[in-house]
Amino acid sequence: MTSTAIPASEERRLAALYEYELLDTPAEELFDAFTRLAAQLCDAPISLISLVDRDRQWLKSALGMSRAETPRDIAFCAHAILGDGLFEVDDATLDRRFAGNPLVTGPDGVRFYAGVPLRSPDGYAVGTLCVMDRRARGLTTGQRVALAAIGDAIVEQFEARRSLLRLFDSSQTELYHVDLVSERILFASDAARRNLGYTLEELRRVALPELLPGLEREGRLAERLAELDANPGRRLNLRSIARRKDGTAYPIELRIELLPGRRRRIALVVATDLTESEQAQQRINLLSAAIEAAQDPILIAKLGATPQDASIIVYANDAFMRQKGLSAEGVIGRPTSDFFGPQTDRSKLVAMRNEVMAGRSARVEYVSYRADGTLYHTESTAKPLVDESGRTSYFVVVQRDITEQVMRGAQLALQNERLTAITSIARTLFASLDPTLLVEALVTGTRELVGGTAALYAPHERGGFVATTDLTATGGVTVDDPLISLAAHSEVSVLDDSGRRAAVRIPGSGTGTAYVLESVRDDAFSTPDLFALGLLGQYFAVAARNVELYQELASRRDAVVELNQVKNDLIAMLAHDFKGPLTTIVGFADVLADDERFDAESRQYLGLISSSAMRLASLATDTLALSRLEHNELALQLGEVDVIAMVRDVVRVFSVTRPIDLRATAIAMPLIADEARLRQVVENLIGNAIKYSPGGEAVEVVVRARSGGAEIAVRDRGIGIPEAERGKLFGRFARASNARALGIGGTGFGLYLSKTIVELHGGTITVESGEGQGSTFRVFVPVSAAKRAPGLRRVVLLDADGDARSYVAHALRDDGYAVAVATSGEEMLRFLDEAQFDVALVDAERLGMPPERFVAEAAHRTGLVRMGLRMSADHDGWDAFVAKPFLMKDLHTAIGEALGRANGASPKKAVTAGR
Ligand code: ADP
């Protein structure tokens, strides 16, 4: 026997062999099929796939031979791998190399051998496919070709298996072959060895239960493996702990199945190291626990493919199910839109979806619905869940129930609205200065505020309460109503048993006489309702007090007005009656003064009597004029007046006592004016000029045309007027200190009267003066007095009070207006027919006719100011509006506005033609 030669690149050949990881692996049906085929084709009893290891040949498949391996030095194959092609020994007994081989000499009795090397693609022969016979023989050419072809096929399988192994090795998946009987590891993949820290040899000596202590402890493995043995098609899935060589352990998942077609029971074990996935799982578990524990509803949904497709809920936490009143089955798998309803603003959700699609978070508030159809307000934050490819297919939504906040907000808004309403009603209450109107305003206001009906109860003189529509009424039938009585003694609002009838005490003035406001409606009163009622009651109490005060004031004022009237009448009568006797006195004094029988001294006294009586007469005239003025009776008698002629006439009369220089810039200067009144003004000014220049200095009168009218200037060189007193002299009874000091007599009426007359004409009067140097009074009169002066406006009033005691009328008179008071729209139209008014002030609710009709008939005759609680839609045609209650300055502003419009400052409304 000769030892076998070793190939030149033995180490690399061995490396190639080991790479296939075939040595000591279980037999496989596939390879057995190859040896069967080779044996059949070559008609040989023995066929082997032999792998030549360093010291042995190991048989991957052995047909017709019982041993699994032989030492290398007796192996025919060790020779076969040295050559390129088929290695054939026809009769081993005749071959020197094999004659002494135990396979030949022993019980196997091999005579014939033919083998082809199995070469890796790199050219290393790792083993052979061979056939053997116990008789000497040869192969046919066809058999040789077939043997070589099968050899190639086998190598291809080796290769395929190697790439598979590479794949496994690169993965974390561990692969084992385990003998079910001995529970020993026959094979372990790279990953398995790496993870466990053992070499294959070491692993082969370790029993599986030692490697997987978790399984053994539970006593299950043997049992489970036996189970597997009994049901070959089954696969076991187990979880366990694997123990490394160094004693550390890691979690592992095992898939065990029986390799088919074995005589030995061999299990293929695929193990996955769960360390990482278990950590991840643990993290996920923690997170899910946190999400589950969260109080806020949380859901995860899969985005619909298009905006039209619904998003489907794939996860929801407990809080979400609780919120919806559903179990997990009722929620998971349903479209999110199942929880929308009529009040859900879907546009917001579309916007949210778009944000999420774009990979951004979004926060929206919307209305969501529960399973039972009830709704809640939610503030939801949606966050996209981006996958590894960067796409968003899921999003998570965290909801927050903000119903309470929203409701609180809504309630606040409601309260606000209510307060606004109360304020508006309070305005009406305060504007109602009439006892009936006030009660009406309260009843209407209560109805507006809380709905239902309302009634006011007033205390009866003889005890008990009586329903009333008038604060001042005291009679009536008392009611026996426990709720009213209860309310009268209660500090807070009270309700009857149904909660639909409320009563609230209204504090009275002084001795605490209280009213009770009662309201009845179809549904129960809420606390805010009662609060509102109470508030209304408080306002009413103040307004009622105002009415009382106003009534008292009004009656006092009436008394004063009446007294004033009596006084004026008396003065007028006296003044009038004075004039007759005074004329007689003057006349006779003049006659006597001319009588030669009296001496010079007596005649001088008679002259004094005459001039004093004349002064008295003019005083009487002024007083009469003043009295008329105060009655607004000073109507102008307009006609054409030539100012120059009129002034010349006055000058002629005065020229007797003082030289007067008259100059005029034209021959004639016609105006539309009241001649007698204008003459009174000129007389007064020239008279003053003479009177206050006691040195006899000449007086100068100039009449000039000025734009839009005429100017009359009266100039003297007399005592002048101290600067500080100049402005006041046009007031009633005003006299300058120097005039008094010099003992120059006067009443202080003249300039007041003059100013009034000039302003009635729409003109002006001014003075320039220097003390001790003289004064110049200038009067300007416009061409036509038809347009009245701003000083005295004529106003016709139709007020809520509806009578002559109207506060507005009094206030306007105080402010210098001539005021006529109408009691209805009809009467007002009659007034406008009869006289000219600058402005009509109208409370449209008092018109007693449609406001449009009134406007159509009145608008072209006067400026129209509407007084009302609020601007109403039908304000067309009115020139101005003033909201009640108003301050007088507001009313003046409105009047000014109306005057501006009526005078054409801005186009007045369309007026019905033909009136
Ligand atoms: P009366 O002359 O009766 O006092 P008027 O109203 O006419 O009343 O004048 C008011 C006052 O104005 C006079 O008292 C006088 O002090 C002052 N006054 C009027 N005209 C002149 C004038 N031409 N020169 C100086 N003072 C004058």
TrEMBL record:
CDD domains listed in its UniProt record: HATPase (cd00075), HisKA (cd00082), PAS (cd00130)
Keyword line: Kinase, Phosphoprotein, Transferase, Two-component regulatory system
Record domain PAS: where: 160-203, 283-343
Organism: Vulcanimicrobium alpinum
One GO cellular component, as annotated: plasma membrane
Keyword Kinase: yes
EC number: 2.7.13.3
All residue ranges annotated as the Histidine kinase domain in the record: 573-785
Molecular function GO terms recorded: histidine phosphotransfer kinase activity; phosphorelay sensor kinase activity
Lineage: superkingdom: Bacteria
EC category name: transferase
Name of the protein in its database record: histidine kinase
Domain (PAC): residue spans on this chain: 362-414
Taxonomic lineage of the native organism: Bacteria, Bacillati, Vulcanimicrobiota, Vulcanimicrobiia, Vulcanimicrobiales
Positions of post-translational 4-aspartylphosphate modification: 843
SUPFAM superfamilies found in the cross-reference section: ATPase domain of HSP90 chaperone/DNA topoisomerase II/histidine kinase, CheY-like, GAF domain-like, Homodimeric domain of signal transducing histidine kinase, PYP-like sensor domain (PAS domain)
Reactions listed under catalytic activity: ATP + protein L-histidine = ADP + protein N-phospho-L-histidine
InterPro entries reported in the protein's UniProt record: CheY-like_superfamily, GAF, GAF-like_dom_sf, HATPase_C_sf, HATPase_dom, His_kinase_dom, HisK_dim/P_dom, HisK_dim/P_sf
Annotated Response regulatory domain residues: 794-899
